[in-house]
Amino acid sequence: MPKADAIVNLPGLTVLRTEIGNPTIVEVKPTYRRICCPSCQSINLRKKARITRRVQHESIGRRTCLLIIHAHKFCCKDCGRYFNQRINGVTPGFKGSQKLKEQLFDLHVKGVSHSDIAKDQKLSHSTLTRWFNECYELEGSKYANRHCPTIM
Description:
Helix content: 25-40%
Oligomer: single chain
Shape: globular
Low-confidence stretches: none
Number of helices: 3
Mean pLDDT: 84
Structural class: alpha+beta
Distance between the termini: 47 Å
Radius of gyration: 19 Å
């Protein structure tokens, strides 16, 4: 991964432009070579349009970061389904990256209050609660199938 792309810390994205400020704006584009239809796994696709997603990303220092992702909308020639290009680390329909969720969860675990995080990141209390619950479930699933000795 080139040094310029390491700013984003998401694999498969190339940095096009950065604008320093608060928030720091980073324009990126995906570099995936092979894209397939999510429903039928076909690679027989047609580009329909170009889309732009605005996603909050993990902070760089004390500055918030906004990713502007330039991706494509595709039409599958086999099943006829339309879909947007998937981005690693960015869940479809969410306005925050997985790295942002992890960063805010770490702050929460270290004792920073909900209201302070919400005020700094300009997010609602409900969104933070939903993200923290997802992170708690993910942490819990790591330990769910661990072997526990019966005799100590």
